[in-house]
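Proteins fold reproducibly. Consider a sample protein:
=====
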Amino acid sequence: MFRSSIGAFRAYSVRGPSARVFPQFSVYGSDALFQLSPIAPVYTNAGKYLKQKRGGAIMLSWCKATSSGYNYQEKHFFSLTPAEIGALLNTLDTVGAKKLTLVHSPNANAPQPTDAATKSFIVEFQAEQQKTVFEFSSDEARAAVALSLGELRVVKELLQYSVPRLLGFHSVLEGDITIDNEGAPVGGGGGNSYGAPRYNKPKPTSGGDWPF
């Protein structure tokens, strides 16, 4: 019984018996609560290596405000792919850029999506208040939160940090280094091994690892 429990616990992570964590960044607004959280990429075991089955994403969510707090039972979600994160960062970094609209629709190939399930993520800078509004919009709901300059900077830092990890690049670039010993590779990038001694890159001693 004890061994089976340990095995199930270790299945959560290839890093060993550590509990999963679900980090998120929250902004509490008068109209809604906005939250940003990472979704880790998923891998399958191909025998001698791991193959990426699905890339990661950043999940955005909004909860409408009520008279007693926020309606957590009716969250509105919008996921960002790495390419969409790039578009968002480019807009936030471009001087004079006022607005960005990203649209998700089940019928994405239609020139003018009209499906009821179509939803939009709208980013708009308000120069008068020096705030940036993150808005969710669909045929059934609308929710918006204004981010201060400090909150927006945190969002940008999290997005920039996440992109290579959502794509899985950190598995290779932050793994063991490869040394060319007179033409024969020694050590393997990304966990590959050729039977020779491995040389590990020093890891930072401060801060915790993200769960992907």
Summary: Confidence is low (pLDDT under 50) at residues 1-14, 186-212. The longest helix spans residues 149-166.
